[in-house]
Design goal:
about 475 residues, seven-stranded antiparallel sheet, 12 helices, about 20% strand
């Protein structure tokens, strides 16, 4: 059969000339054996084609996993050394985070207690000063003589035999038993100096003798405050709205007593607006300097009525009629205050009563103390609802100073510093891991090189030589 001109030439054994040339090249023992030429490969269909370089095999996932955690020197070194670095670092970081958070919370709670105690003591001191001023006023000859004259006129005119309704009608115009403008002006000056909304006094029968501004009634002996003042000598009433002054006042009531004989002559009452306490402005500045947060509030609350006497926030003095914590907290403070002043008081009993009546309360701590007058008072702190509270009683009153902060903010105290510690700990962990990986790689490289050389020798390459590298030990 005649072969075509362009058909590939074959040798006697049936192989093409190109195949024979490639085989001859493979059999050539020298290193500089020439590669088959394009002419030789012409019949193979590979003319002009350059063999592609072999791609470097990629390390698959299993190989990488074995490299890190397998039986290699690297893997064993990482498993042995890495935990000894990261576990202590994690423990130290955890302890530091716990300690910082606890220190921050303890510091914030201590600040709350300090502010509550400071507010209570300063309120008590200002009230004492006001009460002393009123006491001095009641013993002045002008007041004592006017009270005696009023009682004498009432007796002479037979007023004590008349009904209160009749007397109110009779004195509806002036509301005074014997109008005295000079005395009224004097009381007006006292009210302006002391910051009273009003000040007035009665005779022994409870009839008005003089006032700084007209009162709503002429007869006062049917009022509870009048009886308290007569019987106790000094009485601090709960705050309430006064129609005659148009403000919420705290009434300070003082009996008018004859210095020598102690005879009861009448009762004087001064209405102090709850916003007029000078201590509030001063403590507002103190609270601002203390760095109150957005949810921290300190407040003085009357436990009888639940009316706030004053409220201080990070913005300063706030005008509000809502007690922090609502009626539940008012009831809780009322219970604590009544039991703490019981002659048979016991701390364990108070704690038991509070926890029984208010099961939602947590971390309740009570610390009773005695004020300068010998009256037992309290400082307490606890979690209730969604807030953390610190409470201190205002000595000599039914008031308590309450410092509060949202529980979320209290529990998150020190978070800024904790974030910094977390970032530093993370960076240290990454750096330690990176250094260990580098160390493991350098330590294992000579052994890996020797193992590779051994594999080549086993495959028949007797010309391979392992290079010297690493330390003397490796």
């Amino acid at each position: 059969m005649t072969t075509s001109k362009d058909a590939p030439q074959t040798s006697a054994n049936g192989k093409s000339a190109a195949d024979a040339a490639i085989a001859d090249a493979k059999l050539t023992n020298g290193k500089n054996a020439p590669a088959p030429t394009p002419e030789v490969l012409k019949g193979s269909g590979n003319v002009g084609k350059v063999p592609a370089p072999s791609a470097k095999p990629k390390r698959d996932r299993a190989a990488r996993k074995d490299w890190l955690f397998g039986t290699t020197i690297r893997g064993r070194l990482l498993r042995a050394v890495l935990p000894t670095l990261l576990i202590p670092l994690g423990l130290v970081s955890g302890l530091a985070i716990y300690d910082i958070r606890k220190t921050a919370q303890d510091g914030q709670l201590a600040q709350q207690k300090e502010l509550a105690l400071l507010l209570a003591e300063d309120f008590a001191a200002e009230l004492k000063g006001t009460e002393k001023a009123l006491e001095v006023l009641t013993v002045t000859p002008t007041i004592q003589n006017a009270a005696r004259a009023g009682a004498q006129k009432a007796q002479a005119d037979g007023l004590v035999q008349k009904a209160d309704a009749e007397l109110e009608q009779q004195f509806a115009t002036t509301k005074l038993i014997a109008p005295n403008q000079a005395l009224n002006d004097f009381l007006g000056q006292v009210a302006e100096i002391e910051g009273f909304a009003e000040v007035f006094f009665t005779d022994r029968n409870g009839y008005n003798v003089a006032y700084s501004r007209p009162t709503s009634d002429f007869v006062q002996d049917d009022e509870g405050w009048w009886d308290e003042g007569k019987n106790k000598g000094l009485f601090l009433d709960s705050p309430e709205f006064d129609e005659s002054t148009g403000s919420v006042n705290v009434d300070i009531v003082q009996a008018i007593v004859e210095p020598g004989s102690g005879n009861f002559l009448g009762v004087m009452k001064a209405g102090l607006p709850i916003g007029s306490f000078a201590v509030v402005e001063a403590l507002g500045a103190v609270a601002e300097e203390a760095g109150l947060s957005g949810t921290e509030v300190i407040q003085v609350v009357d436990t009888v009525t639940g009316i706030p006497i004053s409220t201080i926030s990070p913005e300063g003095v706030v005008d509000t009629q809502a007690a922090v914590g609502g009626e539940s907290l008012v009831e809780l403070t009322r219970l604590m205050l009544s039991e703490i002043r019981d002659p048979n008081f016991e701390v364990a009993q108070v704690v038991e009563d509070v926890r029984r009546k208010f099961p939602a309360i947590k971390k309740f701590n009570l610390a009773p103390f005695f004020d300068v007058s010998g009256e037992r008072e309290l400082v307490a702190d606890f979690e209730f609802g969604d807030k953390e509270y610190a409470i201190s009683a205002v000595p000599g009153t039914n008031w308590v100073a309450v410092a509060s902060v949202d529980l979320a903010e209290f529990q998150g105290a020190g978070n800024d510093l904790l974030i910094q510690i977390g970032v530093v700990s993370g960076l240290l962990a990454v750096a330690a891991t990176g250094l260990l990986l580098l160390f493991a790689r350098q330590l294992a490289r000579p052994v890996d090189s020797l193992a590779l050389a051994a594999q080549k020798v086993a495959a028949g390459d007797l010309d391979v030589k392992a290079s010297e590298q690493g330390t003397i030990e490796t």
